[in-house]
């Protein structure tokens, strides 16, 4: 009798801890309900939060690939506004160009990053910090710092940006979910993607096991940049205006989403879908803050920072418990 | 079939690293269906030669022919395509992935849509594991398995390839005798399929048991090749070491001891691996600790040294019970612990040999935190000489040393702390004959100076040669003890067998 | 002969940032008008002071294979606390001590979370980045704090022998202490060991969590000094802008300086010159009136060039 | 025509809930505005919910959505960006919630459809006024070099102040401008002044913000230049520290506008609720302060 009990609790603990992301989501939802349950759990609000999670969430999807692969791309925070600008600029001419050109630009930058990191053997942090700076310069040069609004924006692009299902689920949210599903599938089923885990865990071992490390890293970087491209397109197609500074600090958000989703920064560990939930957690935290009226908004950053710490702390404790349970179960 | 009938010919191979000529005009020739031993001291260049063959390194000069045709091997993929498959000396697997994935990484089974067939992969992997007698699930995460099991998995991986040449670089160093036999069975089977096997090991008996031919390297130079039946034990050792080595003989120390223990452990427990371990170590004795793989020897040592938290029992050292043991405390009290897992728990890979040696004794070698360089360098020099660590300079990063030399550096680290009690967990793993004898000699010397040793080893002959007493563990419990002349291979084996049998019975009872 | 060659390579690897700094310096001597002036040198040192300090801290943290992106916010909080305590009439020394204690406390928290609870340093320090910046902004309603103190304003512009700014002295003292600690004491070896293989280091008797906590505290304390200096220079503390994105400059300086992001090595000399290098680039931009947008691109190219040179000299 | 507000159909609620999507809470100007809005909301008896976008346009759009979800009766938006804010305005329109556009102009909005009125201080005009001051003071004949120290370029405030200035002086060939970024930071501004002073001579410094003034003045002094005497200093924005420095004769002039828009805002809301017609724009007055008129401003409201 007693044994069964221990076993079931252990199993539950095991489940929870294995999905530390789940812990994060649970914690956030709990806080949300405590603060303002009625509004918080409404469909509209959840859809809103989902939309708010999109931009960072898509960036996080790209960056999660690089992190799993043991590198990182910090340049996305200036790359995606650039792609937005490019998209708007070409939307004056044709909707096809409006989609193709930003992706081309993104692919080029991804290739550049990848080459500097694999062939140039430079550390990804420094390469992508530099590229981030450089692209910021490019953005400012192109727009002179002003917000860019196309004179003759393609209506197809506009209607793409304003598309929504049942007026609650709009295109961003759809892309957000669909792209994550696709990526998760690819990572699960394509050898080239799956190898990212090996490369991230140990480059040396991956080489010895016959994985083409450089190719894998290039793939991760190019995909990451393409995600930035898609994000840029989505952002400008709904607002119709491109802004240089619109991405500042987003690389950190994206990384945070990954970490909250259980993706380990040392590489080789975690699931892509974790970043998806991580982005939701972050969006929920913002939402929760706006729902409450006890704390002055000037303390926004403090509260969000504290909440992040609470979430990761809960995850860390659950991991510790997990280790404990593991011992228990094997003993029985 | 071509003229000479060789499957693999490596000729005039040269390779140098900054400061070292690792290989200088080396040759290696293997026929199909032959098991060929590659032997030499630590740092002789065996692994380097293998890495050249498998495309990890590129040779500075030389030719490689497979079935008489010259091949170009620039990377691992090309080597794989050429039919070469290898188990490397250092475990090179991905701990976070499943066993099945580790086996198939690089050659995932894919369907027509180029998607990985997970079910098929797992099934094949499971079949493979069952086939080589490994009782694990293919879906298990590799990192949760013990070193030995991981080693067997990497062998499974190498075997799973349809290769012409199989390279095994010290595959047996972390296996016990049962598993070694298991491996030999597989090797014989492959041999019958006309696969050429290159086998590296420092254990002479294994080489005599399984190999037909042997090639010896020394200091990166080719010394010669022999039929194993035509070369005697002594001659082989002499060719490897380059001088005559005396025969190993049993030197038993004392058989009677003081009543007092230096270290006494009572009912140690840390689930799941250690359940009830009780024994004591006298001053100045060598206590052997043995048992089957996974019987909890390493875990016991870890508990004594404070790497893991004690769940039950007590540790009494120098008459005082130790509360909340930590490695730092242990070191300050004069304990030392040379771990079995060199790469993960031993070396600091990117630090110099010097810093690796003094890491644990820096406290003693510094004054108010400031390191006294002269003293430190003396210590380093002393131990490099004493353990005959082969390196161009003490500044060299330890990662770049050969496996055996890394082990010596770790030993030096612990000897440098001038301990009263040294726990040696598989200290001679991957160490060449010469060095092994030196280490054994050193161990005995230390005992003469009054140091006590806990000697954990899977090589029973080693225990028989050196130990004053032997404690046998099985399934986390101390089940027997042998003293003095009782210590013989047969007795130890019998005791291990008895222990595991009784434990096995208990397990059955528990399950019901 | 062989031996000697290796040494040159080693020196180049270790001092790549130094070489690149002097190259750029020489380049400026030729191309920038009025560059060769004592004023320029003074300005260079004064202006790079904050980056220099946080780069030292970052170097230690990165050497343990972790990261601290909270330093920029730490600077802002320090400046605010210092300004407010001074405004409240406290003696500067006392105010500085209070600031150090508060800053060090937050560093300690980061260290504990990373060391004892095994939470990834990136997320811990990122949360801390938000928290510290948020407190800095919130504690004075988002406004700038002005303060007056004659002693401090004379101190900040004091030139020893009319030539050497106090900044240089303070910076050299801090550098000397840290350099000594890293190169000459066992602490340095421990830091590198923890960065390289924490498990092995722990078994070898290194107090891994102690080392981790200590590097975070040091990093936080250096950020405090940097932040306070920023406040004193203009006699005001502006919570939203002090130290903003400076953590990236510090990371860049650390890596350009030859400390690998993967940890296991601490190159303080490299960080020193790399930080000077980064500020030199800023000066070059200002002095030649380079278009601000172009300035970003130039900076990016020079950073990549510096690490490339670093890597390739090292590999030759 | 005005947007048909729900309040007119339903029975009037007891409290009228105003959502205020502020773009940032920091900087003296904003801090003053926030305090003013909070104070005036109480005075006028409105329930106020404020959010802080921290200058992040994406976050602001989310903030507005959150305000809608909380059933605000009217939402005030202080756009982080004049164009990219569009989705937020559209979301309000869809939810049938009236919007007041504040401070920054929502350029693609249509009066009466997207917002019921605009209350703003014009950053672009401020930049222009600064340009005008330079031309008025230094004439159109002798060549004048201006060192423009910008805020973080790409942000609306900095961008508008830059554009207004640049557009005005573009007509005068004798004015030459050196533009370097001070990133809104006093120390960066100080560094810029020092470094530029090493190589170039300039007659006047134009600062985008009052927060950078202390740094600029120290930088000038260090370069051996006397502010106002040798080099003129003009800034947009006039917190107390700037007024003090005008009094001390170190800052030459400041273009000001008051952040205290609370009265205007809530009286507009009052009128809206009673069904009065609102004008399209209520401009907050702009002023040039020099040593001549500094005392009046200082005493009256400080900003
Ligand atoms: N990457 C490297 N860089 C520099 N030197 C190296 C490198 N790899 C190996 N060496 C050196 O080359 C020599 C041969 O090493 P190798 O690993 O081949 O020896 P081994 O015969 O396999 O020894 P062991 O039996 O100990 O495994 C050693 O002196 C070693 O220090
Ligand atoms: N299930 C497991 N989970 C985590 N670590 C394990 C597990 N099994 C073994 N290990 C670790 O792997 C290392 C080697 O284990 P191995 O299977 O060789 O048995 P062992 O415990 O070393 O055997 P013995 O105790 O007989 O020496 C040990 O240090 C142990 O801590
Ligand atoms: Mg070897
Ligand atoms: Mg063991």
Automatic annotation (TrEMBL), chain A:
It is found in: Cell membrane. Its main location: membrane. It is a multi-pass membrane protein. Keywords: Cell inner membrane, Cell membrane, Membrane, Transmembrane, Transmembrane helix, Transport. The chain crosses the membrane at residues 20-41, 53-76, 96-118, 125-145, 165-187, 218-238, 250-267, 274-292, 298-317. InterPro entries: ABC_transp_permease. It holds the Pfam family BPD_transp_2. CDD domains: TM_PBP1_transp_AraH_like. This is ABC transporter permease. It comes from Blautia ammoniilytica.
UniProtKB/TrEMBL annotation, chain B:
Keywords: ATP-binding, Nucleotide-binding, Repeat, Transport. Residues 8-244, 251-500 form the ABC transporter domain. CDD domains: ABC_Carb_Monos_I (cd03216), ABC_Carb_Monos_II (cd03215). It holds the Pfam family ABC_tran. One of its GO terms (molecular function) is ATP binding. SMART domains: AAA (SM00382). The keyword Nucleotide-binding applies. This is Sugar ABC transporter ATP-binding protein. The lineage of its organism: Bacteria, Bacillati, Bacillota, Clostridia, Lachnospirales.
From TrEMBL, chain C:
This is ABC transporter permease. It is a multi-pass membrane protein. CDD domains: TM_PBP1_transp_AraH_like. Keywords: Cell membrane, Membrane, Transmembrane, Transmembrane helix. The lineage of its organism: Bacteria, Bacillati, Bacillota, Clostridia, Lachnospirales. The chain crosses the membrane at residues 15-36, 43-63, 69-86, 93-115, 121-140, 160-182, 202-226, 266-285, 291-313. It comes from Blautia ammoniilytica. It comes from the Bacteria. InterPro entries: ABC_transp_permease. It is found in: Cell membrane.
